[in-house]
# Entry
Amino acid sequence: MTTTTSCTLNGQKIDIDSAPQKPVVFRLDPTGATKIILGSTIKPTPQEIQQETNNWPEGFWDYMNTADHSYTMDNYQQAKDAYIAAHSLLSSYVRLNTALLRTYRKMYKTAIDEKRFDEAYKEICEMFSILPNEVTDTDRKKLNKVVDVLKKTNPDFSWHTEPLLLNKKDKIKPEKPTVKTEHAVGIDINVYKDETYNPDNERYSTLTTQEITPNGCVTIENFHIGYPSTKYSIITYTKQGDIVSETDLQACMEKSNPFGMRVCSMGEYFVGCSEDLQLFLWSLNGNLIAERKVKCDEVGSVRYIAISGDAQHCLFTIRGKIYIFNQWLHTQCIWNIPYRDRDELIEKVSYKVNYNTKNVLIEEALTTLELIGHPTQDEIKTQFRKMAFLHHPDRNPEDIGANERMKEILASYKTLSGVDVRTALEDIEQSITLSFAFSPDEDQILASHITLHAERIYLGCYTGKVYCMDLTGKVLKVYSTVDGILGIRERGSYLYIWTDTNMYVLKDDKVINQIIHPTSLFDDKLTWSEWGFIFKSDRTLILYSEDGTWLGTIQFPGSPYKGSIYKIIPNMAGLVAYASKQRYHVSLSFKAL
# Structure
């Protein structure tokens, strides 16, 4: 690697010789580091616990978690069955009924689109019988349409009543959409629209990076001033959320066009890297502090950049390699991420085989569910419910093998779901095609973080591991979960680690809260504040305290394409949210209990 380094002091550019010694290059060794396992069990969120006073029936959340997971995997039949099982235990839970209604609609609309009207009729009638109070005119119209088609195409079909009458109440709409809020006990959330906001002067922007500093909030925003023209600016806000200064970064962009920019938490500098591996350190007033050209043999571009709170250290990563720099952008050391464990090397194992026997998996599944012959899907479903009811661990607390038995029953039902058993068993020759795919022996870095004075450096990887080390490269701790790491942040006494849809809140290396989020937790979906953090999803904001306790949920009016929140500026008392031609002020107040 060769470098050219310079810095700017008092407005004068000064060349700095490269570091006097060659940087140390070695592979990080996690041997001897403390191992912390992050649980993967999905539990009811704090919001759900706050909202409901029910004593949850035994097994209820097992069914709910299975159903939610199946729905996200587009396995709607399995999701419906699990939701129904949960509904049989607790029929008054609002979120469950909403999820079950949504699942039924997915299933009958798919059946209508594929002209399987018999199945659509069956699903709609079942939905009406289980959720009579949740259906709407939309569902009644669909049922009438399906009945009309079946009358014309199926001479044996008989419909015992006249077409369903529409409920006029369903057509009543509020005169003006309003902001909807939910909040935890002891907390008030007040939202009002800023009538003084002038949408004619609105500039649509994208937050490139945002940081909460001791003096307020600092953002680097990309303003869209007419395609394809853009403009970058550094905007600093007070703790009350008011703009105190704005600096045009056009000169910086013309020189380097950096990406992956990060502002230090002390709010004085930011770092960025261009596509040709030109690294820059700038002050927030737009002055270039240091720059360097990095040439290396690694294939690929810079993935992730981080900077310590005091701006004395920064890093960037290329694939599985980490470069650590000091405040003058001299290379201090180069690390390689640890090798994967042997059981992580093979991601997919496949082969192709032809055989002239019956499908062994289906036969085993039928045996497990105690089915014979060629059962229909209705018979399979009925038998599954019967077996699940009889062998559920909650009903057999003294049976140590109940858990494994239940897993076998669930796996067998999954194998048989949607399968034409007769065809599968009578096929003389079947072909199973799988493909071999081996992953590289090195892990891939997906996230990074440096603490205030670089006491700890965190690296999050594809395999779900987070390595915590000091500046010498000694691995202090290894956190592990089952999903790839998307982000890491240490704030005060809390450590936050998040994956695609999970956030783990740790204190003293113990998980004190695990938050499940319905959409991917990328940087633009997560905003930090002095009082906690916010998840953003289109028009919805979910507010949490520092320890991950749910504070409240805000849903703004509008459609997914009009009214979505595109920028959040936190302040000491709450936040300011920007939507299309609207600005909202949100304040939080905590009541004495």
Notes: DSSP finds eleven helices and 37 strands in the chain. Confidence is low (pLDDT under 50) at residues 1-20, 49-54, 343-358, 428-439. The longest helix spans residues 94-113.
